[in-house]
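seq as requested:
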Amino acid sequence: MRSTSTDFENRGRIIILIFVGVMLAFMARLAFLQLFSEEYDKYADSNAQLKKIIYPERGVIYDRNGKLMVYNQAFYDIMVTPREMKGLDTLEFCSTLKIDRSFFEKRMAEIRNRRLNPGYSSYTPQLFMSQLSVEAYGPLQEKLYRFPGFSITNRSLRRYSRPIAAHALGYVAEVDRKDIEIDAYYIQGDYSGRSGIEKMYEKVLRGEKGVEVLLRDVHGRVKGSYSEGRRDLPPVPGNDLILSLDIDLQEYGEKLMENKRGAIEAIEPKTGEILAYVSAPSYDPSLLVGSRRMKHYLELESSPHKVFLNRPIQSFYPPGSTFKPAQGLVLLQEKVITASTKYACQGGYYFLGLKLGCHNHRSPLNLPEAVSASCNAYFAAAYRGLIDHDNYSSVQEAYGRWRELICSMGFGSRLGVDLPYEQSGWIPDTQYYNRIYGQRGWRGATIISNAIGQGEILATPLQMANYCAMICNKGWYITPHIVREVKGQATDSSFVKKHVSGIDPVHFEPIIEGMRGAVTSPMGTSRGVAVPDIEVCGKTGTAENPGVDHSIFMCFAPKDDPKICLLVFIENGGFGATWAVPMASLMLEQYLKGSIAPNRKWMETRLLNANLMNVEPKE
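struct tokens:
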């Protein structure tokens, strides 16, 4: 019995010790929280605090010469914290903002709808109305203390120094649910870049948000800064961008392309910097700013001319005869021809009972002369000689080698330009033709249209301009890019690296000679591009198309020290020499000389007055 009593006494002591230990632990924790921890201070303080987001200034954008292109202008967002709306005089609030009661109720319902607004909390500020003008802000500010739950946040809108470069710059708009889910930086009502440079460089342009902590009384009224601003975080402005664009050349190109569909791409060949980036038709980027943005967006989107299509990188076309220099380079590299090899032309190339037509010129021609005269027969015969050559074990091997060299010049894949949604164009592979014709069912004559940039060959205007830069660099190019510098950051290494083609540099001389002859030779197809005192090298192209053909021209100048490569592509513009050649001539003169000579103003007037929009676009 004594043993049992002792056991109970021991257990009682243990229970008492555990109870005392737990009490001491609670007391120690309570003492720590009261004397040393700020955790409960924060909980208590939160009832007296209003955390207001301070939005940073978005980075501004300059052209290559330091001329301002995009800047910011202040505007105001009205925020509402639903939990704090007690006692709101709705009628007076609506009257002050000049809105209907029905709009107020609809907007509050949208805010509280968690499906539409996944970030909703009645305790946190929600966007009620955005982009309030300075004029509307004044009356509201005077009465704001009478509208519990409502506050104003300072924001900024994009403004443009000139109504140009919309497809390059892009636009800024409110984030959607997907944006918020992907990036915790955003909340409902924030804005981000949706296209162009604004989208591609969003993270460097947007900066970092700040926070201002305000003190509220028991009625929720703001009484001033909390804790003398010690808990405030200042916003960090976004980085400024310096573009490679020349704003004056850009504006001139857009004027020339008014009432036309197509693209102009100008590249500085030694650096890959894009000097002009024209997609036509275009629009004034300021239309997509402010409270009427959506109205303007829908109007532009409904245009039959596909205004939002970023033609330089999203449209792909047959390159036509501009592709012939690439053919010549492959033929030289594979030793199928030499620069002096001649082929005859009797008005075209005849094969399998068919004819690939050509225009009148003397015959036979060597390679430089064939480039100058843009002879279809020359390149068809030489291309067929390559694909069917005995040096290769099969037509597939020959075509595979041809395709490898063509793709090394920047065709068939995305170049990596610093703009979103770039397309790759298309250079078919051997499997494509095997599926159509069978393993033994095709030869050089089967795909003869490839010889003159037709058939299945497709390229974007930017790829064509980059290929021109590769020619004048004699075998290499730097990825085309539109941002020259992000202030405060190192240059992207991908925009200084040389991409070397599979063509030996020695083979470019006869091609460049032919492109120079296209401008100077009596049988040259590019004579209209000549600019006084400047050696221009060029190549026309007419891309076949249902209806009216596309007009194409690529060129570079000066010949021995190229400063600019240019591609002009006019949809449904007919022969390359009709519209694209004179347009390129004016662009070269504007960039290299700074103005158009008086005796050439007639050419400018002709192009400015031309309206090609009534020609039906290709479906």
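The CA atoms of residues 170 and 196 lie 4 Å apart.
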